[in-house]
Design a protein that fits this description.
about 400 residues; alpha/beta; Quinone Oxidoreductase, Chain A, domain 1; Rossmann fold; 2 domains; seven-stranded mixed β-sheet; six-stranded parallel β-sheet; 11 helices; binds NADP nicotinamide-adenine-dinucleotide phosphate; ADH-like_N; Probable quinone oxidoreductase; oxidoreductase
């Protein structure tokens, strides 16, 4: 309550931007701002949250559109949930190749915690966290075709900055949301669903003959992974921390559910598979489970380490894989949606599975965007299950 109160009574203020970026594309630009990373002309490095100032010194002309203020969550220093500040930020007009999107709903993800803590590094401070949202296009950049004001779009992963009422995005990073899908559902599944897609269909191709282990089976990604793997015909073993989560995981298609606190997951997997082990482990817990996950694999099994909710796993000597000729991968959604075609195809498959009922999106928690602090507290203390959504 203390945390929430301090957020609620925070003063509205304009954020001082730490960087000046000289625009080489349009030297007549006067003091425009953008709230997404742009490439530095010299180094190619991505710089977040910058003020774009022109080389020209002339005063803003009458045609310069006025800056718009929106509310956003900003991080000025790494740390606990309390570093998430609710502030006013300036938003400019979209330039070539860009659109402005008014967010209807924003997906909360564990990766937001990594960036807030500094486990993953944002390019600079302050930054606006968030990598998943759905919203309506409110403006398009000059000459842009294929997107228009009023379109419902969603985006995931890149660029960071979705904890805001409105944001500017590269048009080629958003995907259209089918009219049958509610924006809150879209914001709950675009990142998590595309993650499940690449994990199950491309990173390791799950088939009916496979037995798989899914950690965090009742979480945002885990719930979708379990449902989708079941639909692909695999035998799904889910691992969770509580009885309540076990019941949800069962409902989501896990044939067997292990409760970490009550049973040793390695022994249980051994028992369930009659000593054979599983074909693949999807391990997003990291430090606490990594070694055990390796022990759960059958000969020539696949260790897919795709997250670290409990901390970064210790380094693995190659000899640890040699014992059973194991495969080990540490995949990221970004590399599996690197091209426009990959992004569109992956998103389309997710939305098609939602529309047909193969995937049931569990929006178990919603918070006002201004209360992102509480949402982070709950996510990190393992109180949440399914998808968590912030509403601007
Ligand atoms: N590689 C990629 O491209 C990619 C993309 C998306 C997500 N991810 C990863 O997938 C994982 C799940 O992400 P999510 O956003 O859907 O989160 P989530 O699963 O909704 O929430 C995290 C869950 O982690 C479990 N957990 C285990 N140990 C924990 C600990 N020490 N502290 C806190 N939680 C712990 C908890 O479930 P229990 O209580 O049941 O243990 C908790 O509910 C994260 O590790 C994330 O980084 C990776």
């Amino acid at each position: 309550m203390g945390l929430l109160t301090s957020v609620r009574f925070q003063q509205r203020r304009v954020i001082p931007f730490p960087h000046s970026y000289k625009s080489h594309q349009n030297p007549d630009l006067i003091s425009q701002t953008c709230n997404y990373p742009i490439p530095s002309a010299r180094s190619g490095r991505r710089i977040p949250i910058v003020t774009v100032r022109a080389l020209s010194t002339k005063a803003a002309s009458a045609s310069t559109p006025p800056s718009k203020m929106v509310k956003a969550i900003r991080v000025h220093e790494h740390g606990g949930p309390e570093v998430l500040k609710w502030e006013d930020v300036e938003i400019g007009e979209p330039k070539e190749g860009e659109i402005r999107v008014k967010n209807k709903a924003i997906g909360l993800n564990f990766i937001d915690v990594y960036f807030r803590k500094g486990v993953y590094k944002a390019h600079d401070l302050p930054f606006t966290p968030g990598t998943e949202a759905a919203g309506v296009v409110t403006a398009v950049g000059p000459g842009l075709t294929g997107r228009q004001v009023g379109d419902l779009v969603a985006y995931a992963d890149n660029p960071m900055g979705s904890y805001t009422e409105e944001q500017i995005l590269p048009a080629n990073k958003v995907v259209p949301v089918p009219s049958s899908i509610d924006p809150i559902i879209a914001a709950s599944i675009i990142l998590k669903g595309m993650t499940a897609q690449f994990l199950l269909r491309r990173c390791f191709k799950v088939e009916p003959r496979h037995t798989i282990l899914v950690h965090e089976a009742a979480g945002g990604v885990g719930s979708i992974l379990s449902q989708w793997a079941n639909a692909l015909g695999a035998t799904v073993i889910g691992a969770v921390s509580t009885k309540e989560k076990a019941s949800q995981a069962k409902d989501d298609g896990c044939h067997h559910v292990i409760i970490y606190k009550e049973e040793d997951f390695v022994s249980r997997v051994n028992e369930i598979t009659c000593g054979n082990g599983v074909d693949v482990v999807y391990d997003s817990v990291g430090k606490d489970t990594f070694q055990g996950s390796l022990a759960c694999l059958k000969t020539r099994g696949y260790m897919v380490s795709f997250g670290q909710s409990s901390g970064t796993p210790d380094p693995v000597p190659l000899s640890a894989l040699a014992v059973k000729s194991l495969f080990l991968t540490r995949p990221s959604l970004m590399q599996y949606t690197a091209t426009r075609d990959e992004l569109l195809e992956t998103a389309a498959e997710v939305f098609a599975n939602v529309a047909s009922g193969v995937l049931r999106v569990r929006v178990n928690h919603t918070y006002p965007l201004s209360q992102a602090v509480q949402a982070h507290v709950d996510l990190e203390s393992r109180k949440t299950s399914g998808s968590v959504v912030l509403i601007p």
